[in-house]
Amino acid sequence: MKVYIHPSWQNQLKEEFEKPYFKGLTEFVKEEYEQHTCYPEGKAIFAAFDHCPFLETKVVIIGQDPYHGPNQANGLCFSVQEHIKHPPSLVNIFKEIETDLGIPYPQSGNLERWASQGVLLLNATLSVRAHEAGSHQKKGWEQFTDAAIQKLSSQAEGIIFLLWGGFAKKKSNLIDVSKHHVLTSGHPSPLSANRGFWFGNKHFSKTNELLTKMDKTLISW
């Protein structure tokens, strides 16, 4: 299956596309999309990469897998399509931005506006069967997205990785902390946030402080 992904990422990940695991993964995904309703729509599977070219990546946020409800997933972690009700984790993300930066709660849950500024919104698994959370895990996506993280770690410098929750924190072993910045906290899901592990992390202001020190353009959250 031909992979349509931003040319900058195509160049960085071309070796992955030729590996046996990826060929098996593409066959699995193709069959799933033919036989079941899956999200996001096929053209948005690699949206995180398409909206955030390799050399423009300044911040990485790692999610687990796409939303599995109708019209939610758009290929960017934590993001939903326009005019869709904000899921609980996204609500808590926006609440933290409100208190951290003193800016109004946004109407749109579509985070393409972040991605276009250099925020890679990367789910570890890039597809899911409708109403079946985790249904496309352990099929090869994690190996592929780990390779993307490792490429950023080895080929770039000064990237800020925001690792929220236990799953994302495990990705820290893929990151060269001598070259990059890693900020960790609890997950923004209600279970974690309501126990005091999310609110007050100030990751959004801290990210912009780090970008200022590196003389990079700030993110308009």
Radius of gyration: 17 Å
Tell me the strand order in the biggest sheet.
3-2-5-6
Strand content: 5-15%
Mean pLDDT: 96
- Helix/strand class: alpha/beta
How many H/I helices? 9
What level of helicity do the residues show? 25-40%
Q: Tell me the span between the first and last alpha carbons.
A: 36 Å
Low-confidence stretches: none
Largest sheet: 4 strands, parallel
Report the count of strand segments. Answer: 6
Active site: 65 (proton acceptor)
Enzyme class: hydrolase
Catalytic activity: Hydrolyzes single-stranded DNA or mismatched double-stranded DNA and polynucleotides, releasing free uracil
EC number: 3.2.2.27
Layout of secondary structure:
Layout: H1 7-17, H2 20-35, E1 38-39, H3 47-51, E2 59-63, H4 88-101, H5 112-115, E3 119-123, E4 128-129, H6 141-155, E5 160-164, H7 165-169, E6 181-185, H8 190-193, H9 203-213
Parallel strand pairs: 2-3, 2-5, 5-6
Antiparallel strand pairs: 1-4
Helix pairs in contact: 1-6
